Every structure is written in structure tokens, then in C-alpha cells.
Amino acid sequence: MVTAPGLLRAREVAAEVVDPELPMLTLADLGVLRDVAVDPDGAVTVSLTPTYSGCPAMAEMRAAVTARLQAAGFADVRLRTVLNPPWTTDWITPAGRRKLAEHGIAPPGRAPGPVPVALTLTRRAAVPCPRCGSADTTETSRFGATSCKALRRCRSCLEPFEHLKEI
Amino acid sequence: MNDDHVYLSLTEGDAGGDARWAFGTGFEDPLHGVDTTVPDGVDRDALAAYCLALGDDALISSQRLAEWCTRAPELEEEVALANIGLDLLGQARLLLSRAGQAEGAGRDEDALAYFRDPADFRNVRLAELPNGDFAFSITRLLVLSSWRLALFARLTSAADPVLAAVAAKAVKELAYHREYAAQWALRLGDGTEESRARMVRAFAEIAPWLAELSAAEAGFGVEPGATAQDVAAVLASVAAETGLTVPEATPVPGSGRDGEHTEHLAPLLAELQSVARAHPEATW
Questions:
Q1: Fold category of B40-278 in CATH
Q2: Which residues of A touch B165 (CB under 8 A)?
Q3: Between 3.30.420.40, 2.30.260.10, 3.20.20.70, 3.30.300.130, what CATH number should domain A4-81 receive?
Q4: Which chain B residue lies closest to A53 (C-alpha atoms)?
Q5: How many H-runs (helices) and E-runs (strands) does chain B carry?
Q6: What is the pTM of this model?
Q7: Residues B218-252 pLDDT 10s
Q8: Domain residue ranges of chain A, discontinuous segments joined by +
Q9: Residues contacting A69, CB < 8 A, separation 6+
Q10: Which of A115, A160, B96, B110 has the most CB within a 10 Å radius?
């Protein structure tokens, strides 16, 4: 049986698991950890939400959460996937944004909100360089090493960098 | 215990199916732990058929996009096309899983993706046409992502909560796909004489397949033809910037939704399904 202090501990352990593709972020920083609860039968249930539909890191995240909780003494662990409300980059915490920038990845701006059905080719807000802070940067590719990142280059310090796209 | 390395951490701890890390047969359930109750009042057969069709559109599109790997004009475009394909593969997995649950015959996403024959697929035929040149692939991506976005925007209020949630997630991804395709369409349509000529040809090649899309969307609160104006508006906005026009064309009779396909689907599926059929039940 998991007690109230046990629940707190389970929350801490689950929150510390890191994202496999952005290992500077914990699942809590990324905003994909929706809930940790204790079921009437004593099992710990962890609710995760996927970032992208095809994100191959989801299976890895579930395995890591289960393994970490079991290592911390929680024998019975259940994983629940929450699809609604869908994750957006607004779920990334301020600490998560700071860590991204410290690791040379430009954090996302505000999520664009409801997707308009009409096509607008509006320019997105400027993305400042995470290394030198210059606003003079240009996109080299809309999609980077993972679906969630774009590739950019700074025209001031000339360094390439990744940008976590607003979604 | 070692979480510092993706693969090491998977070889220890949890011995259940979750720890398996493989694409293809045996890859874990994408709807793992989702409340998959079908609500009262939702026709299970209709839900299964609808999710299957939308899942097939995504699966076949994803396979065509993956074919651009090692063939794209630039490395950045190859990465972009593969990532778009990955998003669609994720949508396909969720939708095929949902179709299997609603059907209730014990078929999971793998059974539906790998062990159906061409006549059992329900994707629209535009998705299965060969990639052609880059202009054709971009124009097709523009049309299919615009259509899917307009359709999924409506499905966010579908009576089935899983379908609605999958749609709500997908619209954000589709907006990026459409923007990518639109920017290339503008660049090619407004580029050199050669790139423009190829875009003119691509628009002509795609025009006969547009009518099939409008007829293929009916169900779950969406009337047939509901998205036609939205798709036409997207194409018109690209046309306005480039002077390209979508020519009038006689629609190709039939529909992939009825299991009617071009001769191009069977070879695509032969490649997609070859490993799973050669080694059924294999995991790695």
C-alpha cells in the first residue's frame, strides 16, 4: 500500500525522469507528466501525454518511468496515456525553457493557438540566438533532427542552432 | 539502472511489453492506457470504418514520404519529408488501433497495416500515386495536408472522444506540413522556367483526383464536400501568389474508400509489408 508520503515520493521520482531526445529536460519540465496518483489497489498510476503523434520517444518515456519507480520501491506501476487536452509547447515550464536556452536550443515562443483552416503565410516572431542573443537569425530548415525542432543560423555569431518549434 | 543511455535503460528494469523498442511488429500499443470505451450512441462499425480510412490515408502517405529518403534534393528537405512522414505514421498508428478496437475482432494496428491486401485498403488514391518529381510530391502534400487539416478541424468535436483527441493533436502537426508544402509551392511556382513548368504539370496531374477527397470525408458530423471550399481556398491563395491555376479536370471514377485502387498500391504494400509477412510475430 502506498501512503501519502509515498505518493509524494512517487511524484518526485516520476518528475525527475528525463526526455530521451532532450535529456536536459525532465518530463515535468517538458509538461508531458500530467498526473501521478495512487489507485485503490495500491498501484501507482502515471499519466503521460504525447508531444507529437509520431514521437518515438513515448515508449522510451513509459519504460523509463516504470523502471525508475520500480527501482524506487514502487512494485506496481501503471502508465496511462492522456490525449486530451493535447500537449502544446505552452506546457513547457519556465525552468524547462531556461534549460533549453542554456543548452543552445532556442525555446519556443507562445503557441499559435487554434490552427486556422485558411492558409496564412505570416512570418513567425523572430527567434533570438541562444548563444549571443542576437535577433538576426534565419531558418535553414523547418524540420530538424526531430519533428519538434527547426534548424536556424545566427547571422551575428554565425553559429547554427536548434529551435523548439511552437506548436 | 541506467537512464543516461536510451538503449541501456531499456534492457533493465521493466520486463513487460513496454520496454520493447522496435519499429514494426511488436512495437507497443500507441493507445496504451487510453480510455477506449466506445460511447453509447456511436456505431462501432461506422467508427471502425472511418478510423481505418483516415488511418490508411496517413499510412500510405507516410510510406510515400519515406521513399524520399536518400533521394531528396537537399539533406534538409529529406529530413523535413521524413519528419512529416513520421507525424503521419503516428496518426496512422493511433487511428488503426482505434479502428481495431471499435471493430472488436482482435485486430491490432500491426494486423491492419501488415496483413491486409490492397483491396482491403481504404485510402484515397491520390495518396498512393508514385512520388513523381519533387513538384508533384510537394503539390500532393499541399493538397492532402490542407484537406486533412480542414477535415480534422471539424473532427475535433466528433462523437468519439478518441477520434476527437487524435484529430485535435493532428491539426497542429498538419499546420506545419501545409506551411512547408505551401512555401515550396510558392518557391517552385514563382521560380525558374523549369520549376514553374513542373508545378503547372503537377497541378494538372492532381486535378482529376480532387473530387475523390470531398466524397471521402463523410461521417462523424462531417457532410460530404464540407471541406472542398477550404481546400480550394488554400490552392487559390497559392495560385494568387504564383499565377498558377488548378485546371478543370474530369474526376477519375471510383474511390479508394470503396477499395478501388490504382496499380500503384500493390507494389507499395509489397514493400511496406514484406518484413512483417516474412517473419510474422517477430520482435527485435
A1: Ferritin (1.20.1260)
A2: 83-84, 86
A3: 3.30.300.130
A4: B90
A5: 11, 0
A6: 0.88
A7: 999 999 999 999 999 999 999 889 989 889 999 99
A8: 4-81, 93-164
A9: A10, A13, A14, A44, A46, A77
A10: B96
